[in-house]
Amino acid sequence: MDFSLIETMRWEPGDGLLRVDQHLRRLSRSADALGFRQPPADTLKQLQAATAASETPLRVRLVMTYRGKIEITTTPFTPLPADTLWRIRVARTTLPSDDPTYRHKTSRRELYEAARAEFTPEEADEVLLLNERGEVCEGTITNVFVEQPDGSLLTPALSSGLLPGILRADLIREGRAKSQVLRLADLDNRRFFVGNSLRGLIPAELVAQAARLEVAVEAPRPAARAAKMARAGR
C-alpha cells in the first residue's frame, strides 16, 4: 500500500487528548475499509506516553502504515487568537465525489496540496474544494459549516465527497449541525466557519475572486486494490 492512515489530535494539560476515542474509532474503521491491519492494542498507551511529559498544549500526529505500525510525533500547539477570521478562496482543483478513499484521512494529499498551492498564504488562510458537480466539499485541512438564522449549522453532505471530520461528527451528534448538499451560493452573505478537531470552529469569510474553472486538475485515481477495498468497506 503506497499511503498511510493519519489522525491529528490536540492534547491539553488537565484534559489530555481531546476526542481521542473518536479518533481511534475512525482509525479502526478506515483500516477495515482500506484493507489495513488494525491499530495495535496499546495505541492509546503509546499516545499517552508520547504526551506525558508535556506541560503545554500539543499537536499530536499519529501515522499508521498498511501493516499496522504506528508513529507518533508531537509539536507545540498555539490556539488561534479569539478575533481570528480566516480568508477563504475557492480552488479550481476539484475532489471526485465517487472516490471513497477521500472519506478517510490518509497521506494521499495530492489534490489538497494542489488546491493549497493555487494561492499564497497572503491570499488565503484556507482553500475550499468543490466536486465535479460544483458542490461544496471541504477545505484542505478543515470541514465547512454554514450558520443558519436559528444558530444551527449546515455542513456538506458526505455524498459530495469529503472527509467526515471528528469535529463535524461531534457537532452532528450533539444536534448543533446537520448535513446537506451545499453550493457556493449557500455561503453568500452568510456567516460560516471552517474547522477541525485540532483547532475547533474558525470564523471565515469568502474572498471574492474571478470566475473559477469547473475542472482544472484531474483527480489521481487510487491503486486498483485500494479502490476495491475502500468500496468493499462502505
UniProtKB/TrEMBL annotation:
EC number: 2.6.1.42
Highest taxon listed in the record's lineage: Bacteria
Names of the cofactor(s): pyridoxal 5'-phosphate
Molecular function in Gene Ontology: branched-chain-amino-acid transaminase activity; lyase activity
Keywords for this protein: Amino-acid biosynthesis, Aminotransferase, Branched-chain amino acid biosynthesis, Lyase, Pyridoxal phosphate, Transferase
Reactions this protein catalyses: L-leucine + 2-oxoglutarate = 4-methyl-2-oxopentanoate + L-glutamate; L-valine + 2-oxoglutarate = 3-methyl-2-oxobutanoate + L-glutamate; L-isoleucine + 2-oxoglutarate = (S)-3-methyl-2-oxopentanoate + L-glutamate
Pathway connected to this protein: Amino-acid biosynthesis; L-isoleucine biosynthesis; L-isoleucine from 2-oxobutanoate: step 4/4; Amino-acid biosynthesis; L-leucine biosynthesis; L-leucine from 3-methyl-2-oxobutanoate: step 4/4; Amino-acid biosynthesis; L-valine biosynthesis; L-valine from pyruvate: step 4/4
GO BP term, example: branched-chain amino acid biosynthetic process
Enzyme's top EC category: transferase
Family under the similarity heading: Belongs to the class-IV pyridoxal-phosphate-dependent aminotransferase family.
Role, per record: Acts on leucine, isoleucine and valine.
NCBIfam families assigned to the protein according to its UniProt record, in alphabetical order: PRK07546.1-3, PRK07546.1-5
PANTHER family on file: AMINO-ACID AMINOTRANSFERASE, AMINODEOXYCHORISMATE LYASE
Protein name, UniProt field: Probable branched-chain-amino-acid aminotransferase
Organism phylogeny: Bacteria, Pseudomonadati, Pseudomonadota, Alphaproteobacteria, Hyphomicrobiales
